[in-house]
Design a protein that fits this description.
The chain is α+β, with helices and mostly antiparallel strands. Strands 1, 2, 3, 4, 5 and 6 form a six-stranded mixed beta sheet that branches. Strands 13-12-17-15-16-14 form a six-stranded mixed beta sheet. β15 and β16 form a beta hairpin. The two termini are 52 Å apart. The relative contact order is 0.05.
Length: 751
């Protein structure tokens, strides 16, 4: 390429950068005050200068990325000038020579603090589960300081997911899985419904591309008929709204690809039979004080036209979710020969903006209503306490993240103290969870509760509107059984703290007992070697677990005599073996080494790692991969490298939480091997059907059947077959042949 051509390209890029920057300023204009535009320009120039020699994997100038992140902050989250500045500068401290001090000097301490928070949680976590969990923990801590850190981080992650095509396949899997595991739940909790849905769809696009393409294709094919159905469905609703003189908008939209995929997996029904494939949204433009009455009036009108399903009414107007979401949902049956269930969402313009833009939109209206603020603050205070507790109790970051992550998707229950104080707990919370939420000591001493003046056990599951009064006793102590029914992070961590403290005494007593008995048996010193032998013999997790079990009486001291006898017997056998069979031992050693280093004919069927080496592996039983499947390698702790399909149910957790142990894996197509594949064949039963199926498999295609089970009920035939096939092409040919057998209606691949 000539120098002149490069100069032209660079000139075009400069024009494009300015074009994108001007678009950002135009979008931000309604949010800007006083000196904001000048500061944004300074941030833009600093970012351009800092990133001037950097390019993205796609080859584009790196500056495109921070501009795009700032654009998402404005257009899709509704953030203001401070967030725009931080978005433009979010990578400069991490990736360039610019320091936090320089940013603080030019833009102030608030901007520097947000960028510091963003820098601490930068990048994809590839240092193992504990490092990743620690990063997520830092992210949650920033919620306490400034929620904008996470909102900007979500914008950053959304743009990364939108531009993931240019990344290597293993990086796509890691980033997608981490996004699904951490960022989509966070977007949900922060009320960013549109961003949460897009993140989930993009994750599916890269982790299960075939499933994503199939659903997208079906949605495209059914678009015309779907739009016609929606138009017919909303016509009477639109007329009713006009008669009621409501200023309104009605939207019909399909469910997200991920939610359809989820429903297909859970309900095991064909695409055409998903009853709520789309939703209709009625958005009313009414004053704040008339919102509730207007929404219920519209609900009444809708149910006059269409029969509602009473089990599917959800009222989030009276009790908004803690992420600020307010809406009235009902599912109704459409009219016509073939009725279909349709979800109708009724809300106001204010509610719709909060539903799409979450807390950024809620701040805009916070002067009018603080109910949802209180709900979110209640959840946030639980997170703060859980983080604080984990510091004191040295709870592992992984354990903490699992607990907190599970709370991100949970719905809430709204309950009250006898004095009328609102307490927001996650759905499924019990009377004991409530007690710990009131105070740690109340939880620890709680013996029961009165709910609505009625006596209930500690395990009673609370319902929205319950009024709870806790009963305590000085003699009560927390027990391990409590962990079986509490669900909140705070209750779990506090109970574990009490149990650990109580267990310390049992460990001390147990160690003294073991030392004393070993001296009687002639083992005078409890060395590290002896402790490890005892730990292995009694299958204890660690030394503390070993001594605890002796101290509690779970292991009797007489067992030490049996341990000593077995140890001496083993030592005598080893000594005799080493004297009599030195040559045999050497041969055995060579055999073992060959096993370890992959002395197997099929070891070169899969190329593993960045260098595409031929390394020994085993196939994961959870997903049974075969040659041709999209796969990855995972380094286990005790079983070497295991190969999983990228669509394996365990893939999201392995890829997101243990990124450093994931290896790239590609099939060497020239190698043919036999793999186990499972097929589920369904059809209408007839004489000789099974004979025809087995003939096609065994005789026509020469495929070995490893296992076969058949069931017939009410004339419907279902067979489960385990086959030995060479690769996906071989399997597809087999499925195609079986589909031609008379009576066979459906064939699907089992796990």
């Amino acid at each position: 390429m000539s120098v002149e051509a490069v100069a032209i390209d660079l000139e075009l890029e400069k024009k494009e950068i300015l074009k994108r920057y001007r678009k950002l300023l135009a979008s931000a204009k309604p949010y800007l005050r006083d000196n904001d535009a000048k500061l944004i320009k300074q941030a833009f120039l600093m970012s351009v200068e800092a990133h001037k020699h950097m390019r993205r994997k796609s080859g584009e100038p790196y500056i495109y990325h921070p501009i795009a992140v700032a654009q998402i902050c404005v257009d899709e989250i509704g953030l203001g000038a401070t967030s725009i500045i931080c978005a433009l500068l979010h990578d400069v401290v991490e990736d360039t020579e610019v320091t936090l001090d320089e940013i603080s000097e030019q833009f102030g301490s608030k901007v520097a603090k947000i960028i510091d928070g963003l820098t601490k949680i930068a990048g994809v976590f590839e240092h193992g589960s504990s490092q990743q969990a620690e990063n997520f923990r830092k992210m949650l801590l920033t919620l306490s300081d400034d929620i904008r850190v996470i909102l900007i981080k979500l914008a950053d992650r959304l743009h990364n997911m939108r531009t993931l095509t240019s990344m290597a396949r293993d990086k796509q899997l890691k980033i997608s899985s981490e996004t699904f595991y951490l960022y989509a739940p966070l977007a949900h909790r922060l009320g960013l419904h549109a961003i949460k849905s897009e993140l989930e769809d993009l994750c599916l696009k890269y982790t299960e591309p075939e499933a994503y393409k199939e659903i997208a294709k079906r949605l495209k094919e059914t678009k015309a008929s779907r739009e016609k159905f929606i138009q017919n469905f909303i016509r009477p609703i639109d007329k009713g709204l006009q008669d009621m003189s409501f200023k309104h908008v009605i939207k019909g939209r399909p469910k997200s690809i991920y939610s359809i995929h989820n429903k297909l997996k859970k309900s095991n029904v064909p695409f055409d039979e998903i009853y709520d494939l789309f939703a209709v949204r009625v958005i009313l433009d009414v004053p704040k004080e008339q919102e509730k009455a207007a929404c219920w009036a519209v609900y009444s009108m809708v149910t006059d036209h269409y029969k509602p399903n009473p089990d599917r009414l959800k009222d989030w107007i009276s009790n908004p979710k803690s992420n600020g979401y307010e809406s009235l949902h009902t599912t109704v049956m459409s009219s016509g020969k073939k009725g279909r269930w349709v979800e109708v969402q009724i809300r106001t313009t204010r509610m719709d903006e909060i539903a799409e833009k979450g807390f950024a939109a809620h701040w805009k209206y916070k002067g009018n209503d603080t109910r949802t603020n209180k709900a979110f603050e209640s959840w946030l205070s639980q997170i703060r306490e859980a983080l604080d507790s984990s510091d004191k109790a040295q709870q592992s970051a992984v354990e903490l993240v699992d607990d907190i992550r599970s709370s991100l998707y949970n719905e809430e229950v709204f309950v009250y103290t006898p004095k009328g104080k609102l307490i927001v707990l996650k759905e499924g919370a019990t009377a004991l969870d409530f007690a710990f939420e009131i105070h740690t000591e109340v939880g620890a001493r709680c013996i029961g509760a009165k709910v609505n003046n009625k006596l209930v056990p500690l395990s009673y599951k609370l319902k929205t509107g319950d009024i709870i009064e806790c009963m305590t006793s000085a003699k009560q102590k927390p027990s391990e059984d409590w962990l079986g029914f509490v669900v909140t992070t705070k209750a779990k961590s506090r109970i574990k703290d009490y149990i650990k403290e109580a267990n310390k005494q049992h460990v001390i007593v147990g160690r003294d007992m073991v030392e004393h008995r070993l001296k009687i048996l002639g083992v005078n010193v409890l060395t590290l070697e002896v402790t490890n032998q005892l730990r292995a013999y009694f299958n204890a997790k660690d030394a503390n677990d070993l001594f605890y079990r002796f101290g509690k009486g779970y292991i009797q001291l007489d067992e030490l005599k049996r341990w000593k006898s077995d140890r001496e017997s083993h030592e005598r056998k080893q000594a005799a073996k080493s004297i009599q069979e030195p040559l045999t031992n050497t041969k055995n050693l060579v055999k073992e080494l060959k096993k370890l280093h992959g002395d197997r004919k099929d070891a070169d069927a899969l190329l593993i790692g960045e260098d595409m080496d031929k390394i020994d592996y085993t196939l994961a039983k959870c997903c049974n991969p075969i040659a041709g499947d999209d796969v990855f390698g995972f380094v286990t702790i005790n079983e070497g490298i295991k190969i999983h399909r990228t669509s394996c149910p365990n893939a999201p957790e392995l890829l997101s939480r243990h990124g450093d142990r994931v290896l790239k894996a590609v099939w060497a197509s020239k190698i043919e091997m036999s793999f186990v594949a499972h097929l589920i064949i369904k059809g209408t039963d007839r004489m000789g059907l099974m004979n025809d199926v087995t003939r096609v498999i065994s005789q026509d295609l020469q495929v070995n059947i490893q296992n076969l089970s058949i069931g017939v009920k009410d004339g419907i035939f279902e067979g489960k077959i385990a086959l030995m096939v060479n690769n996906t092409g071989h399997l597809e040919k087999l499925v195609s042949s079986l589909e031609q057998v008379s009576g066979v209606v459906e064939i699907e691949r089992g796990e």
